[in-house]
Design a protein that fits this description.
The chain has 239 residues and is of the alpha/beta class. It has eight helices and ten strands. A five-stranded mixed beta sheet has the order 3-2-1-9-10. Strands 4-5-6-8-7 form a five-stranded mixed beta sheet, with no helix packed on it. Helix 2 links the parallel strand 2 and strand 3. It binds manganese (II) ion (MN). One of its GO terms (molecular function) is phosphatase activity.
Length: 239
């Protein structure tokens, strides 16, 4: 296990997910990890769950995977829920909080948003350094075999914005988003196969018009909103 693709924030965008899985296939990776937000915002959550279950070796939960399971009066959320099966809801409920592994003696930890909660958003462009450094901390949620160690490398998602920063404590990487990234469908390959670790971002163009067409054909509630998200207008203004 030395070449790992890390994907995140699919958000029911099946067109983007299919394009990324096709790209990953060509790149000779050993495993695929998914950092959550499989569903929500986009129309085809169930199909995305199916593909993630088929292709990903480890999957953790995001904020949308949690609150999509809650009762709501919101018509758009209700429609999104109506597209998921009981089996989908059960699957989302089983997703663990984090992934941890070693690569060339470095401890690597992956979570959706922060080591404390899938609902704690940390955007290094806007938040002070203390908050960024807190991404390396241990928490009740990350107690494990390695709990005395802090990670050397942290991968996370949630903000839909790629980022690679090095601090004295370690390396921080946001893997971007499959479904709602500002630039193409984006993911990361971490490669430890040469005795050292490299981190590469991969950007996969996909057919946005086809994704929007599929949403329209399904009669998606909140289509206008999705259209704007896919076309960026609402970027950074929404969840
Ligand atoms: Mn998200």
């Amino acid at each position: 296990m030395s070449r790992i693709a890390i994907i995140s924030d699919i958000h029911g965008n099946l067109t983007a997910l299919e394009a990324v899985l096709k790209d990953i296939e060509k790149r000779d990776v050993d495993q695929i990890f998914c950092l959550g937000d499989l569903v929500g915002k986009g129309p085809r959550g169930s199909e995305c769950i199916k593909l993630v279950r088929k292709h990903c070796d480890k999957v953790i939960r995001g904020n949308w995977d949690v609150f999509i399971r809650e009762e709501t009066d919101n018509e758009i959320l209700k429609w999104t829920q109506s597209q998921l099966t009981d089996d989908d809801f059960n699957y989302l409920a089983t997703l663990p909080f984090y992934i941890e592994f070693e690569l060339n003696s470095k401890l690597i930890r992956c979570f959706h948003a922060s080591p404390r909660s899938v609902f704690e958003r940390i955007a290094p462009e806007y938040h002070p350094i203390e908050k960024c450094l807190s991404l390396f901390e241990n928490s009740k949620e990350t107690e494990s075999l390695h709990s005395k160690r802090t990670p050397d490398i942290v991968f996370y998602g949630d903000i839909h914005l790629t980022l690679l920063r090095s601090y004295e404590i370690g390396i921080l990487c946001n893997v971007g988003s499959i479904g709602l990234d500002i630039v193409d469908a984006t993911y990361v390959i971490v490669d430890g196969s040469h005795g050292t670790n490299s981190i590469n971002f991969v950007r996969v163009p996909y057919d946005r018009e086809a994704e929007l067409r599929a949403a329209r054909e399904l009669g998606m509630a909140g289509y206008e909103h999705y259209y704007k998200e896919i076309m960026y207008d609402l970027f950074m203004k929404t969840e």
